[in-house]
Amino acid sequence: MTSVIDDVSSWIERLSKAPIPVLKHTARELARLKVDESKLSARAITSIVLNDPFMVCKIISYAQKHQGKNQLQDLIQVEQAILMMGTDAFYRNLPASPLVEDQLKSDIPALTHLLRLIKRAHRAAYFASDWAAIHKDFHSEEVRIAALLYDLAEMLMWCFAPDKMNQIFAMQQADATLRSKALQEEILGFKLIELQKALVENFQLPPLLSQLMDDNEGGDGHRARNVVLAVNLARHSANGWNNAALPDDYKDIAEFLRIDVERVKFIIGVPNEEVAQAATATITPPASNSP
Known about the structure:
By secondary structure, the protein is mostly helical.
């Protein structure tokens, strides 16, 4: 029987050789921007790629692997990384291809699950960035990126192992008591968090990202807590505001931000009870104030 370490290693080898796909929308918008020199800038590129966790990963990884001799700090801010390499080098060395939609065109359920996961990552990044600002964190972009890439391993597995990921999803739908990590070990042969840690090292993503994405690794504990709380809230509110875990999330966030629970609900856009009840009746997820 193949060991867990061997399974993770084999996937790392495969992911190292296969180009990371990007979203079709990202490729289209970057191509459109390239032909309009009056609008082309590092900031304009950044506004596009921050919507795509895959492209963010590609940029940060490339920047780390091509550090200048005089560069003393890791580049975690996307705009800074693009400024350092220049717009011409960005388009030349980081092509927006292949496309996620092409890779999963024969598996629409997997594509749907992946896009939902990316949407959830956007919400987590929004929450994390917002709370970092409340704490006057001058490096809130690093927290935002860590939240956005928190589930990078799962995103990549939806792209490269959709059959196995669909199987895990179906088993959880059939039995809600099944634990995700146990299913991952059974179907994939390892936990996604193990692959995530290996990816951070293999892609040469800055160590701070690993610390921020793992609440159990010490490092910058306060900022790591921010990321974990944001990821939890995004996960638990993904299908509406009736998840049983949300009250505990509100309490944890209130403690983190040093405000009361009602203020937390207002900040994150929890609808009032009447709206929540109406949403439950129509089985339609209520809108929030976050993007």
